[in-house]
Amino acid sequence: MVLPTSYFAPVEWYKAYMKEPCRIEVFESFPKQTFRNRCVIMSPNGAVTLTVPVCHSERKQLTKDVQISYQQHWQHQHKVALLSAYKNTPYYDYYEDYILPLYDRQFKFLKDLNDACHAVVICLLNNERPKGYSPLPCTADWAECDLEGYWGTGGSILDLLMQYGPQAAEYL
Known about the structure:
There is one protein chain. The chain is built from 7 helices and 4 strands. It is 36% helix and 10% strand. A hairpin with a 2-residue loop joins strand 3 (38-43) and strand 4. It is of the alpha+beta class.
């Protein structure tokens, strides 16, 4: 299976990724307004779209060549949005030290940012410690979860991780 690179991909993307061996495509022409440079998170006020601004080219470019624009303060905006959306979730305090440092770096290419986000998500789904922090807890009551309706609508994997922590992998 071939999946497009994605910025904190939707849950459905991760369901496909975990189901069978996948290749992440970066040699396609970069299509605008896709999950390649945006994600949708749920906040107390509803869905919020976070977009990574990219440098546009006069001609078509491959996804692997798309550069991130830092003319806006999007990294700070994304950190504030994540804090606002997730500060009261069960796993935010455990996962913020893995996710927020991604916004302290300036990746040149969108592909590199997406790869870094994906690597952190895979570690968290596998209950691994990417940076030597203490073990992750596993206390959510998975039996009470009825998520099928929401997770199929394009919600980011971050929503699932922040609510259900290590048990998020069971849903996938």
